[in-house]
Amino acid sequence: MDINIRIPILKDFSIERVIAQTNIKSDEVGNLSLNKDQLAQVIGKIDNWVWCIDETSNEGWLPKSSLKLSTIIIPHLGANIDFRITLTIKNQSQRFNFQQDLENFISNDIGIFTQIDWTDTLHIVFEASHRVISTKKILLEDFKAKKYIKCLLELTNFKRSSAVIIIEANDTEGKTQYLEENDEKSDGKLNPKLISGEILRYTCNAYGGCGNVYQNGRLSITNYRFLFTSSSKYDYVLSVPHYAIDNFSVNIGQITITSKDLRVIDYYVSQDVMAYVLDKYSELDGMHFCFDYYLAFYTSSDYGWSIYEPEREFTRMGAFDSGNWKKVDVNYDYKFCESYPAVLLQPSYITDDELRIIANFRSRRRIPTVTWVGKNSTLFRSSQPCVGVFYSRCKEDEDYMSKTQIKYIIDARPKLSARANKVRGKGFEHSAYYARCKMLFMNIPNIHKIKSSYEALKNITSKDDFLLLLHNSKWLNRLKSILSSAKAVADFLIYEKSSVLIHCSDGWDRTSQISALAQILIDPFYRTFHGFQVLICKDWISFGHKFKDRGSCTSDNSPIFIQFLDAVYQILRQNTSEFQFTNYYLLFLAEAVYSGKYGTFMGNSEKDLKEFSDKTLSVWKEEDSEFFNIGYKTSNLEILSVKTQISSLVFWDYFYKWNVN
Fold first, then answer.
1. Is 524 exposed, middle or buried, given 0-12, 13-18 or 19+ CB atoms closer than 10 A?
2. Helical H runs in 495-523?
3. Looking at residue 220, which CATH number applies to its domain?
4. Looking at residue 211, what is its pLDDT?
5. What are the binding positions for substrate in this chain (predicted)?
6. Lowest CB count within 10 Å: 13, 22, 150, 523, which one?
């Protein structure tokens, strides 16, 4: 077998140091003394002892239990040093020379080794100014699992420091085949592949890194994304839409992007082109690409926007069969409640004036309204009541609850949080005034805690302590709370034949999650491909989930919809044949939310989307064979079963997406 080996980058020169946590005094030969908070540099370690050198060049052993260890990166430690690395396999040697690029060192050399086996050993000799400063051995079979290895070299003879090198190995047969599959220009420059509506603004040579993917290639800035192009099949890991960027920072020769889909991407570019890169990026706004994408695309006349029509959906449910419900247009111009849909389903007896009185008693005027009608029960949703610390009441609101026979009020919040809202003039229904209703608090955290759990999942799939990190994130605990709440609502509606009202604070985050999940459990239509789209349009978009704000770079950012898709996946995984769509469709929607390609997720309400419907594409126009479940079978189950204990939940594929292993 022949293989190609590259070492594209040498970086992160660092030293390890200790800080004494207490006074360390010792008269024993070979031991070192330090005062509290005094610094020393680490030279070596053994068991519970560390060999250090202090600021006056005294050396000796220190007890690890009395020290705080830390690693300090020193960017210019290797400045102006002639570095080279020699790799040897069997009797074959190849030398790699490095050129300084700010604090990093880049090599474009490729070493070819012939007639070797995966069982052979790779010997590394690291030199600085023709003096050996480190050696290391790596088994070639380590490259079978992953093409890139991040290797730490202890530079004991070079200022007692360490450095990181990235080693890439490919068998030449596989590499040649892949290069043939990529469309390269005759001048050797990689040709970026653009999608419809995408316009190239600037391109330059760059080195990219994310997780365990490290590549030399071309960085292109388009009106849609940072697009990385190389000869690797993992370029997608290093390419990110502008709309998906959560944080953007610049250092000397380095751009670091933290994305909303849990990536941290580093681009290393020459300092003389950095100004051009930043200039082109500053001209762009990720939200604008959905308009360019629309102009470049040809599809049917409505572009997917007519998938949901309220009256048609309520008719499908049989809402108008009994005469108990009617369509009202009190919000036809969105002035009654700008975050609610134009068409509302309300009890036949109710008047517009009564609805206006109730609106004044509900946070943000989000009145109780019907979202699903069954044979023997009805599902309502609203925001919290404005009761305050003095237990204000509204007779019309109380009558509404009584006449519609709502038995359960599901408050998604922890009771303590709901009670705290009373100080701000809001709160929850007082049991003395809603005697026929039973209050249940679901203890689901707010958007900020969900965001914290989500961000704790960043890069954990490549960590050895993955299970501990997953546990500490509390992501599965939050998922369990949502699923348990939805299951309870479904049970009340079907088994008890009792009507239910769901709300949280404003009724557009946790309320949408519980309401939509409960309907998936009880209504087979919402488990079809088309029905699932209708459900999202109805209970998320039209009822005012703030897709724009939740996908922004502000403090309102939170992955509420991603969490909902994860919960749907848990139900789908336990009831695969009951769903017409697959996990691939859920993954597609999760990516689409942060892609900036579709107008569907660009607004905070149905009202907002009016300005997008004739100027952008809807995500509902997308169809692919992978989205459809060939094993789908309709059944007569009244309600889907779902196990909600943490031991029955699994870590969703979405979070493995950027781990190429």
1. middle
2. 510-522
3. 2.30.29.30
4. 80
5. 446-447, 504-510
6. 22
Query: Residue 78's domain is classified under what CATH number?
Result: 2.30.30.40
Q: What number is the average pLDDT over the span 389-417?
A: 96
Q: Catalytic residue, from 204, 504, 537, 553: name it.
A: 504
- Of 379, 358, 341, the closest CA to residue 543 belongs to 341
Over 50: is that where the pLDDT of 221 sits? yes
DSSP characters over 581-610: B-HHHHHHHHHHHTTS--GGGS-SSHHHHT
Report the distance separating Cα 604 and Cα 554, nearest Å: 14
Strands 406-411 and 499-503: parallel
Q: What is the pLDDT of residue 186?
A: 33
Concerning whether 504 is annotated as a catalytic residue, the answer is: yes
pLDDT digits (tens, 9 = 90+) for 433-464: 999 999 999 999 999 999 999 999 988 888 88
pTM of the model: 0.76
Average pLDDT over residues 83-99: 85
Instruction: Measure the CA–CA gap between 658 and 239, rounded to whole angstroms.
Output: 11
Whether residue 332 is found in the same domain as residue 250: no
Is residue 587 assigned to a domain? yes
Give the C-alpha separation, 345 to 174, whole Å: 61
In terms of domains, do 108 and 193 share one?
Answer: no
Q: How far apart are CA 436 and CA 86, in angstroms?
A: 81
Angle at 488 between CA 485 and CA 489, to 5 degrees: 90
162 and 196 assigned to the same domain: no
Structural domain containing residue 197: 182-296
Residues in the annotated binding site for substrate? 446-447, 504-510
Summarize the annotated binding site as residue ranges: 446-447, 504-510
Hey, what are 592's tokens?
């689409």
- 9 and 140 in one domain? yes
Average pLDDT over residues 514-540: 98
